[in-house]
Amino acid sequence: MKTVITPGTTKDLLKQYNFKMSKSLGQNFLINEGILDEIISGSELTKEDGVLEIGPGMGALTQKLCESSGKVLAVELDKRLIPILNVTLFGFDNFKLINDDILKINLKEVLQENFGDKPAKVVANLPYYITTPIIMKLLEDKLNLRSITIMVQKEVGDRLKAAPGGKDYGALSVAVQYYSKPTQIAFVPPDSFIPRPEVDSVVIKLDILDKPPVELEDEKMFFRVVKASFGQRRKTLLNALSSGDFGLSKEGIKQLLDSLGIDEKRRGETLSLQEFADIANRIKQNLNK
Ligand code: SAM
After folding, report:
1. Ligand 1: which of 14, 125, 132 to mutate, judged by most atoms within 8 Å of the beta carbon?
2. Atom 8 of ligand 1 has which residue's CA nearest to it?
3. What is the rounded distance in angstroms from the CA atom of residue 282 to the CA atom of residue 260?
4. Pocket of ligand 1 (CB under 6 A)
5. Kind of pairing, strands 95-99 and 71-76?
6. Does residue 97 fall inside a structural domain?
């Protein structure tokens, strides 16, 4: 095993393998040991845990994951990194690499094959160009996961944990908070990476909820209501929902909001998860009449 966490060793390996980092694959490698330790302690790993890492890169985080958990399954798209990972992870018999695109593989099957029925923990320094699709895939596919601890661009982190009413609150906040409880565990400045990204980063932990925080008659309807409400942020709720194809006239939407005590002039970004759920359930009941 060759350790990769210092700027010196990372640069040596890059030189030795003549590795040119790919901006389009979001390759910014972590070189800050303090941050790696914060990710490891924040993700609360035990030797019993199975970990899914997305994008191991040269293996800086992977080495620490192998030391602190039972088994690490890493999915890396860039095949040029395989010979480097063979060196940096040499000696760890609890490490397995899948050379594939995280957005294309059948994660349900892969998790079952590698971890059986035990819920796995995701820990990753994500490639920023596909942050949202990765998060949504992990949550919407209803995988057997206990938690997701991820490095994301600070602006995305702010959206994941945003409360109703602020500029950061949107469809992503609602979706993430429907499935999980987000907590920020670290702030990460650009000089923690090679090369330096242009943005600040944060590490967010999503603890997967045993059951959603709201009761729904129809989950799809809930997400349709959320999408319509945030679709045109400047519109009032009445106008946004009226153009949402819910089989109700504008007057019908008006009456529905009125019956729930929700002011029609409010904007989507002020609504709590419970209020979105109330609207979706009421629309569903109307359709069933
Ligand atoms: N974990 C390493 C670290 O912390 O130093 C590298 C993190 S780097 C921000 C993101 C990694 O994700 C890169 O290694 C990149 O090649 C990989 N990657 C990019 N797109 C991917 C995809 N679609 N599927 C799997 N891995 C991907």
Report:
1. 125
2. 27
3. 9
4. 25-30, 54-57, 60-61, 75-78, 101-103, 125, 127, 130
5. parallel
6. yes
Which residue's alpha carbon is at the smallest distance from atom 1 of ligand 1? 56
The model carries a pTM of 0.95
Strand partners, 124: 150
CA of 49 to the centre of ligand 1 (A): 22
My answer on whether 130 and 266 are in the same domain is: no
Cα 6 to Cα 33, 59, 156, distances in angstroms? 7, 12, 27
Assigned domain for 51 exists: yes
User: Is 135 among the domain residues?
Assistant: yes
Provide the CATH number for the domain around residue 107: 3.40.50.150
Counting from 1 in the atom list of ligand 1, the atom nearest the Cα of 25 is 19
Residuewise pLDDT in 10s, the chain (289 residues): 667 667 788 989 999 999 999 999 999 999 999 999 999 999 999 999 999 999 999 999 999 999 999 999 999 999 999 999 999 999 999 999 999 999 999 999 999 999 999 999 999 999 999 999 999 999 999 899 999 999 999 999 999 999 999 999 999 999 999 999 999 999 999 999 999 999 999 999 999 999 999 999 999 999 999 999 998 878 999 999 998 889 899 999 999 999 999 999 999 999 999 999 999 999 999 877 7
Atom index in ligand 1 nearest the CA of residue 75 equals 25
Domain boundary among 208, 242, 273: 208
Q: Do residue 185 and residue 223 come from a single domain?
A: no
Same domain, 175 and 235: no
Mutate to test the pocket of ligand 1, among 11, 13, 21, 25 (most ligand atoms within 8 A of CB): 25
Tell me which residue range forms the domain holding 229: 219-288
Q: Which atom of ligand 1 is nearest to the CA of 30?
A: 5
Residue with tokens 């942050």: 131
Number of structural domains, the chain?
A: 2
